[in-house]
Every structure is written in C-alpha cells, then in structure tokens.
Write a structure and sequence with these properties.
Elements lengths: L2 H16 L4 H17 L13 H13 L11 H20 L17 H7 L5 H10 L9 H19 L5 H5 L6 E2 L4 E4 L8 E4 L2 H13 L16 H14 L3 H4 L5 H14 L4 H8 L4 H4 L1 H7 L1
Antiparallel strand pairs: 1-2, 2-3
Length: 301
C-alpha cells in the first residue's frame, strides 16, 4: 500500500472508531479497505483523488467472481456485502473530509436468499459436540506439555463460550474474568451485535469449566491484556479446524466447523429440548424473532 492510501486508511479507521463502530466491525472493514487500496494500483490508480466509479464497479465484479480461498465456490453473500458496505463508508468518509470528485456511496448490496442461507447451516448434533470435546485431549501430542496445555484449555474454552453460551466470535473473544459473575452464575456480554449488552446465564457444567479455566490456568498466565483467551482469533480458529480434522467421524468431517456453527448448534439443541423461541432469542441476543425462527426451519429439516 502506497503512502497516500496508507494515510487515508489510517484516517478512515480513526473515523470509524470516533463514530462508535464496534471493534469487530472496524476489523472487518479495515481488512476490506486494505485489500481495496492494495488493488487500486493494479488499475493504474495511485492516489485517492483519481478514484472513479469505474474502479469501484470493477472491484465489486472482481470480488463477486473470484474464488473463495477457504472453501469451494465464490465468496458468500454476507462476505461480499461487507466489501460493499466498507467501501460505501469509505466514500462517505472521503466526502466528509472534503475530497473532491469522489463518487457517491453506491448503496449496492446483494439480497440474501433466506432459504439458501438456512440450507447452508448444518449444526452439529449433541453427540457430535461431545465427540469433538472428547477429542481435545488427543490433539497436539508432539508439543511440550506447557504448549499442549495452552491449546487444550483454549479449545475447551471455545466450546464453553461459543457452544455453551451461544456467543458470537467477538463477544467471546473480548470477555475478561470481570465479566463472569460466579455468585449470580451469569456472563455479562458487552457491545454485542448492534452494540447491545446482555447477560447470559450459565449452568453447572459451564460454571465448573470457567472456574477451572480461570483459577487453574488463566490466572497463572501473564499477558499484556486481561481477556480470557490468550491467543489471537486466527490461532483459535486454526486450532478449532485442527480439532475437526483430528476427529475420526465421517458425519463430523462432512460438516464445516466455525464458532458460529457452535452457536447455531446450541440454539438448535435448546429448541429440541423445549425452550421457547422467545427465550432462545434473548439468550442469543437477537433483535427480532425472525432471526431466531431459522432454527425452527433447521429442526424441521
């Protein structure tokens, strides 16, 4: 990225932070705009004042047709819309700081096919969740005890928070020990989606798992932060995929694994066990019941 784009990029991120965007959204837009700024010089555009509508249109088409680096096929609709939103925000920012001859925000988004989205959600069964958790102890046998213990505790915490508490990636990753109220058996989730705080109850097994993690492991680890997780999100996801690959079960291998699939799984299991849609919506932090109703469709399927 050249100096001009680097400076605009820096100011853009500061602008998002000033407006109160959540850290997770800022990270997402940060990476999308960095990719855009690295792509522009390939189109013989080395300065922001040369940005034209044709550059944005070409970049959008490129993203819509390029291959997904992780999975077969192209990028998902949700991922593509992140690009479009991030660039619209960039254009709004450029207009606010008085940059001349900049295109207006496009407001271009791809409509999400609800039925197609539901078809792609394949949660794990309760038995599969138990099997994945049981496999944790067999991962990374070649690492030293200290490194292996770190991996195992972090994997266990992933299941405790993202499955047991139904948290989103950023919600779980930003938790600290101060957010756990053991006397009331609750977790305080700050700045969830749409900047909403919420309180999540914890059952006995989650209570015991968190106590073991915090007092027998996390409090003994020195870090330059106070988050429960000591490793980066990318490392956690990599370890989760490693666990998935190590699990010798055909049904599990056929499914994609991600922390959000764990969240989908607990919601489906709660519905199976008789919890009302209204209570599941509160548990997950949904704004409307429409978002929660997808689990009824998944269960019926």
């Amino acid at each position: 990225m050249n100096q001009n784009y680097r400076e605009i990029h820096k100011q853009y991120i500061f602008w998002l932070d000033t407006l109160g965007f959540s850290k997770s959204i800022i990270r997402r837009y940060d990476s999308k705009i960095a990719e855009f700024f690295n792509w522009l010089p390939t189109q013989n555009n080395n300065h922001i004042t040369g940005l034209q509508q044709k550059h944005i249109t070409t970049f959008f088409k490129y993203q819509e047709t390029r291959k997904n680096k992780k999975y077969a096929g192209t990028l998902s609709t949700i991922y593509l819309n992140d690009y479009f939103t991030a660039i619209d925000k960039l254009l709004s920012f450029l207009h606010q700081i008085g940059t001349k001859n900049i295109p207006s925000p496009t407001n271009y988004r791809i409509a999400i096919d609800k039925d197609q989205r539901i078809k792609k959600i394949v949660p794990f069964t309760i038995e599969e969740i138990k099997l994945l958790q049981a496999t944790i102890k067999d991962t990374y046998p070649n690492l030293s005890y200290k490194k292996r213990e770190l991996k195992h505790y972090q994997l266990q915490l992933i299941f405790t928070l993202y499955y047991g508490c139904g948290l989103r990636l950023s919600e779980g990753y930003n938790l600290t020990s101060k957010d756990i109220n053991f006397s009331k058996r609750t977790i305080f989730v700050q700045q969830g989606k749409n900047y909403k705080d919420r309180i999540v109850p914890i059952n006995n097994s989650i209570y015991n798992a968190l106590q073991d993690y915090i007092y027998n492991f996390r409090n003994l680890i020195k870090c330059n932060h106070n988050r429960l997780f000591t490793q980066t999100p990318s490392t956690l996801l990599k370890d989760l995929h490693h666990l998935h690959n190590q699990c010798n079960n055909e049904e599990i291998q056929e499914k994609h694994i991600h922390v959000h699939i764990l969240r989908h799984s607990i919601a489906t299991h709660l519905l199976q066990n008789g919890m009302t849609i209204e209570n599941i919506a509160r548990f997950l932090g949904h704004n409307s019941l429409a978002s929660t109703q997808i689990y009824t469709h998944i269960l019926n399927r």
